Amino acid sequence: MSKPQILVVDDDLTMLSLCRSVIERQGWSVDCARNKQQAEEMVGERQFDLVVLDLNLPDGDGLDIGRRLQQQGVSFLLMTARSDPQERLTGFEIGAADYLVKPFHPNELIYRIKRALPQPAEARPSTPDNPDALYRLGPWQVDLDRHLLINIDGRREELTLGESKLLAMLIDARGRVVSRERILQAVARSEGEGHYRTVDVLVSRLRKKIEEDPRKPALIFTAFGMGYRLGG
């Protein structure tokens, strides 16, 4: 498996040097950008598994980059020297995987990066009967074989065949965007229809089952004009 590609965006050279050193010790590939313009150029030219993004950049708001990353299906975590609850909430609302408040310990950086990186299929929870059947999604355990969701509080939600197929595609994409075209091809037969509205309705149904607030999804994100991806 190829090593994760990580971009760190911060105007503080000391912080960039620290992050680079800590990340490289994990055997991961890391690039650095010092401002919003550099970050946007690098994101446009290369594909990253994760972006570690400072909110306070000299030429713009880091949240603007976060919104673009969310639309492109790129996982990102935010870091800032301010411990502002509203700022943190805004970050999560636009799709941030996690949040770091400076100063932080290097071990905390690595811990949060590991949590934010798209989860490879081989890292999924397993059972003796079927090692690939279970997957953890936020507070839910997804059992694709039984078309079943089990919450940590014990609640259960049954999935239709179409919902199971949709979740399986999103899980296999490991946090990347799955196009509406691909989803439609996979679920059209089980849903009995063959137009894009079918996909949107299916996503809406699934969100009602797994999201705490379906109007503000935290697990299934929309990549506008492209498709859908998993967060959480």
Automatic annotation (TrEMBL):
Gene Ontology annotations of biological process type: regulation of DNA-templated transcription
Keyword flag Transferase: no
DNA-binding region boundaries: 132-232
Keywords: DNA-binding, Phosphoprotein, Transcription, Transcription regulation, Two-component regulatory system
Domain of life: Bacteria
Gene Ontology CC, one term: protein-DNA complex
Coiled coil (UniProt feature): none
Classification via SMART domains: REC, Trans_reg_C
Response regulatory domain boundaries: 5-117
Annotated transmembrane regions: none
Domain annotation OmpR/PhoB-type: ranges: 132-232
Alphabetized GO MF terms: phosphorelay response regulator activity; transcription cis-regulatory region binding
Modified residues (4-aspartylphosphate): 54
Gene3D superfamilies: 3.40.50.2300, Winged helix-like DNA-binding domain superfamily/Winged helix DNA-binding domain
The protein, known as: Two component transcriptional regulator, winged helix family
Lineage, uppermost ranks: Bacteria, Pseudomonadati, Thermodesulfobacteriota, Desulfobulbia, Desulfobulbales
